[in-house]
Specification:
mainly alpha; Double Stranded RNA Binding Domain; three-stranded antiparallel β-sheet
Amino acid sequence: MKNIINEKRTKQIIAFLKSLNIRSERFSEIIRTQNISKIQDFNQALIHSSDDKIINYEKLEFFGDAVLRLAASNFIEKKYPKMSVGDRSELRAQIVSDEWLIKLGEKIGIEKLIIKGPKALNDENAKKTIIGEATEAFIGSLYKCFNSIQEVNLWLDDIWKEDAEIFLKAPYKFKSKTVLQEWCQGKGYDLPVYKIIEISKINGDPERFSCDIFIEGLKESSAFGKSHKQAETNAARVLIERFINSGKF
């Protein structure tokens, strides 16, 4: 059965857990004793459904989504107790986003531990998505180990502290369309008009879509992206940065 892991796999997971440097006695105890039932939970968080349709990370990923939002809310409450509810929601959306999960997964090197079937192994377009999903599933398994978000916060709070400061210093880089819309409204202009052209048919092509932004009928910005959303976001960010540099913003 896939949930019975061999010695080599156990050592891989133990080495991975050590590399996270989570400062928790009970987490260290799992590593020290090589608690097999807990290690099996972590192992399940690292199995893609293309390898096993029954024992895989999908349920833990679903669970991890709720755990991540709770842990992030806990971090924001401790770090920014006077922040408004609206600003908390905005900040949380950034520090639990799919992009953030992929970035975290790449930072901790989770991809080398993910077990995939042949179809997923050869799918480069799905690579980043799988990294993000497995990272979220791992967070779910970490909660499951202790029935507590304590270890999740001990691990992620320092990372969130740095990422939150980056976002708060330049929010337009992360929510550029919203910021541009608010700027236009503040100036009494009509809302920006986004015009998308598909340049390529290749999934994952960073220049698959081109986006032009028009404000009051004038073309103000252009950018590319691998999706409609990314092209629009990139074009809005480019425009805001130009406005900042010219003193218009």
